[in-house]
Write a structure and sequence with these properties.
This protein is mainly alpha-helical and about 170 residues long. The protein has five helices and no strands.
């Protein structure tokens, strides 16, 4: 039962993974980027988010994450209750990533610098939290499943970032 719940949970959050990974690729393909914060500097003298969070990445990430959920729902019709749920999961994942950038700027970490756990889990936690607030989580996503998903996501995030670095999609391995 734990394995089944974990695998269903993994399928459920896959659109969040896609949403979180898409901005890096989208900005590379488009070759231009417009920062979400419009280069605004806060009272602490630091940018709100930095150049790493762009409108192109946000739109592409939410779009591809939602599209991924749509395609998955054709094969696993019971996985999502609506496309609004998938949209919320994808948007929540990027909101978590943006929130992570905001926190990193407030503590003085520059764009691209590592923040263990925040970098790897922020998108997952905020994505699931937003879905839970608006729709409630599916019954197969319980506390044990969430913990397993967090452990898996942490390891996978490090591996995929290393891969993105090796294929020159990212400037850093972390």
């Amino acid at each position: 039962m734990v394995l089944e719940s974990f695998l269903l949970g993994l399928a459920y959050i896959f659109p969040a993974y896609v949403a979180n990974a898409t901005p890096v690729v989208a900005v590379k393909i488009l070759g231009r980027a417009h920062p979400i914060d419009c280069r605004t500097v806060m009272i602490d003298g630091r940018r709100v988010l930095g150049d790493g969070k762009t409108w192109e990445g946000l739109i592409a990430g939410v779009g591809f994450g939602t599209f991924t959920g749509f395609v998955m729902s054709l094969f696993i019709p019971y996985l999502f209750r609506s496309m609004a749920e998938v949209f919320t999961l994808s948007a929540g994942a990027l909101l978590g990533d943006i929130l992570g950038a905001f926190i990193k700027r407030r503590v003085g970490l520059p764009t691209g610098s590592p923040a263990p756990l925040l970098d790897q889990l922020g998108f997952l936690i905020i994505g699931l939290l937003l879905v839970h607030i608006i729709f409630t989580l599916p019954p197969w996503i319980d506390a044990t499943t969430i913990i397993l998903l967090m452990v898996f996501t942490f390891a996978m995030h490090i591996g995929t970032n290393l891969f993105a670095y090796l294929v020159r999609l990212k400037d850093r391995w972390y």
